[in-house]
Design a protein that fits this description.
Layout lengths: L3 H12 L2 H31 L3 H32 L3 H6 L1 H5 L6 H35 L6 H23 L4 H28 L2 H13 L2 H11 L27 H24 L3
Length: 282
């Protein structure tokens, strides 16, 4: 099956060097992560002086910290790719030649979305595997579920691309980028507020965090992914005390209801974007 818009999207991103610089940034991150892991892990393991479980925990926390930074890079790459996905093409006049006759609007939109999602998912998967390989070579670290970790990281960037394309149907590239960064930041802030609420046993703060996670699930998708990054041999659901009681990860098994909601929301926003694009003046 021919997918001309997917190919054009990949070529455009490579031509603008966005993906190239993203790969360069990820390579630098993996190198720095490897250096830090190589020097920090043996020292921390010696200081702990005890069981294998503690050593596994230290390796897991260090790895999850690296994956957390990597997820930020992947999220911002998805935001950059999606920011001008529609508006820049419409402003340049390209869409007038492409959409009116050869392709129906819905197909152009879906192929554009598929190309951006494909690049974003490939980026986050390759970067995550590289960091996991470094951690395994140094500490023998293995995530609890590699498939679950990769799937939820892919779901996070897919969601951000979907939201970005919808916004880009109405706003300029710069405005879309600003709104999407703010949206991503609100999701992170909501997750932090929810963590504070659980820590302080304040139901109102926990409720705010839950509501934000439903409206902007990108941060909660990362936390769900982090639960699968807990090392093999350590049980998921350890609670929030101790080293794993951190605001940027979850030790609880992700709720299938939340995962289903995030996927449903992504599909719904994709459909809304298709509808908005079909009504947009070119």
């Amino acid at each position: 099956m021919r997918l001309p818009i997917v190919r054009a999207t990949l070529g455009e991103a490579l031509g603008r060097k966005i993906v190239l610089w993203g790969w360069i940034a990820s390579a630098v991150l993996v190198v720095l992560f490897g250096i830090a892991f190589f020097f920090l892990y043996p020292q921390m393991a010696r200081q702990s002086r005890t069981q294998v479980a503690e050593s596994m925990l230290l390796g897991g926390v260090l790895t999850i910290l690296g994956l957390y930074v990597g997820s930020f890079l992947a999220a911002f790459l998805a935001i950059m790719l999606a920011a001008g996905s529609v508006s820049s093409e419409a402003d340049s006049g390209v869409l007038q030649a492409v959409v009116v006759r050869p392709l129906p609007r819905w197909r152009w939109y879906v192929e554009r979305w598929a190309g951006l999602v494909g690049m974003s998912v490939a980026y986050v998967v390759v970067m995550t595997l590289a960091m996991l390989l470094v951690a395994r070579l140094i500490s023998g670290y293995e995530p609890g579920s590699l498939l679950g970790l990769l799937a939820l990281l892919a779901a996070q960037v897919t969601f951000l691309v979907t939201v970005g394309m919808l916004i880009s149907c109405r706003l300029s590239s710069v405005a879309t980028g600003v709104v999407l960064v703010l949206y991503f930041g609100i999701a992170w802030l909501g997750g932090f507020i929810g963590w504070i609420g659980n820590l302080a046993h304040r139901a109102e703060l926990s409720t705010i965090g839950t509501v934000v996670s439903l409206v902007a699930p990108s941060d909660e998708l990362w936390k769900a992914a982090s639960s699968y990054a807990i090392p093999q041999g350590l049980p998921v659901g350890l609670g929030t005390d101790g080293p794993l009681g951190l605001p940027f990860l979850s030790t609880l098994q992700p709720s299938p209801w939340f995962i289903g909601w995030a996927l449903l929301l992504t599909v719904g926003l994709l459909a809304l974007g298709m509808g908005a694009f079909s009504r947009r003046d070119l």
